[in-house]
Write a structure and sequence with these properties.
Largest sheet: 6 strands, antiparallel
Low-confidence stretches: 1-33, 162-197
Radius of gyration: 21 Å
Distance between the termini: 33 Å
Mean pLDDT: 76
Order of helices and strands: EHEEEEEEHHHHHHHHEEEHHH
Shape: globular
Number of helices: 12
Number of strands: 10
Helix content: 25-40%
Length: about 425
């Protein structure tokens, strides 16, 4: 299980059309007789499928993304996004998300995570670590659509098994899904509750403090932060993608032109959002994953941080990855491959944006130091964020952040 905290980046990352897309290339499941009538009906509602592959990054991670639109029976358009990631040592992670369209962008309403360790026998399927839909969007076929989508586009056509277990109230998908004879004894401290964590809490206990909590102040927090420290720092000319294949003699020429555009887009994204304020950021943030990791390590290992929030126990310092994502940043705590983990994903375009990264570190700090249930963007987060800003960036910046929070009605407590 995991909890994701997201902050949406302005605009969406462009994707390449999958051209003559044919589901027969995605393993036997897409056309399998094993599917139920419900699954087939849901699959027919998934359209506008687009696909893009990304080059292997500096850590040997390869990835690809598939997006589509799912239309519910009442006509609601749901954006589906499926990411496949494969590490240099062969471990595979697959994430599927669902979004509704809102003014100015999209809002995440559901997610599914599945993994397949490299040490499994080839015929073994992927393990579903999490599948969850927000309560108000349940019973619209969204979970089934996500599962169908994940199965159709899984990395290397890996089979994804699902028990179709329901939640305790039988009104939706269970947050934890069995995988054949899978049991929690293989999940280590997260399942057993052995005290290990920032405040002598296990991964499970930390998760439980966040799980199911409403997050009514999220939009207000984002609005306050944008007002205090706007995302766009420099207005630079935006690069545009190639108009289409028709302008190029060969597919190779078009791909080369798109690759050049993609590189220019990444640079444009980083430079327009560049916002480096502290000495720590100046010494570490250079637009690379290693630079962001060094910044996170510097902040979380500082004496004042350890004194205020702890060392994180088995949660550990978040391991960062840079991705082409629709969110500026994400912090996740949970288990993967049966082991506890603490991870942070930063959009490549925000790898030089210190406030965005500090925002995500604050989620980590709040999680490992919590002693009672809390809202993801509630009072505890806001207080911790202002405190951390004062320590990392300075009193003047922190004072401005506090003022912006109060103006948006964020309760900062005593």
């Amino acid at each position: 299980m995991s909890v994701k905290v997201i902050r949406f980046a302005p605009g969406l990352r462009p994707v390449l059309k999958h051209q003559e897309h044919d589901q027969s290339t995605h393993g036997s499941w897409a056309n399998s007789s094993e599917r139920s009538a419900k699954e087939i009906e849901v699959q027919q509602r998934i359209t506008q499928i687009e696909h893009k592959s990304y080059p292997t990054d500096e850590d040997g991670m390869s990835s690809n993304r598939v997006t589509a639109i799912y239309e519910t029976k009442d006509g609601t358009k749901i954006k589906l996004l499926h990411d496949n990631e494969k590490t240099a040592d062969g471990n595979i992670s697959m994430t599927t998300k669902a979004y509704v369209f809102v003014a100015g962008g999209v809002k995440e309403i559901a997610d599914l995570e599945s993994t397949r360790p490299n040490n499994l026998v080839p015929e073994a399927g992927a393990i579903i670590d999490r599948i969850q839909v927000q309560p108000e969007y349940k019973r619209q076929g969204i979970a089934t659509a996500m599962l169908n989508f994940a199965r159709s586009y899984s990395q290397d056509n890996i089979k994804i098994d699902h028990s179709f277990a329901l939640s305790d109230d039988a009104k939706g998908w269970s947050g934890v899904v069995k995988h054949q004879e899978h049991d929690q004894s293989s999940h280590g401290n997260w399942a057993t509750g052995t005290p290990q964590g920032g405040n002598n809490l296990s991964h499970r206990e930390i998760y439980n403090l966040m799980a199911g909590q409403p997050d009514p102040k999220k939009s207000a927090v984002y609005k306050a932060e944008e007002k205090h420290s706007p995302t766009v720092q420099q207005k630079l000319e935006k690069p545009f993608p190639p108009n289409g294949r028709g302008e190029y003699a060969t597919r190779e020429e078009y791909d080369a032109a798109y690759k050049k555009y993609s590189k220019a887009f990444d640079e444009w994204s980083r430079e327009t959002s560049r916002n480096i304020k502290s000495d720590s950021a100046k010494a570490t943030l250079d637009g690379t994953r290693a630079g962001v990791q060094k910044y996170i390590d510097t902040v979380t290992k500082a004496d004042w941080f350890v004194e205020a929030f702890g060392r994180g126990g088995s949660v550990g310092t978040p391991k960062v990855a840079l991705r082409d994502s629709q969110t500026a940043g994400t912090y996740t705590i949970g288990t993967k491959n049966g082991q506890p983990y603490s991870a942070m994903v930063i959009n490549k375009g925000f790898s030089l944006n210190e406030p965005v990264i500090l925002h995500e570190i604050t989620h980590y700090a709040t999680a490992i130091s919590a002693t009672k249930g809390y809202q993801i963007h509630g009072t505890e987060f806001a207080k911790n964020h202002v405190y951390m800003a004062s320590k990392v960036i300075g009193a003047e910046y922190a004072s401005g952040l506090e003022k912006a929070y109060r103006e948006e009605g964020i309760d900062l407590g005593n």
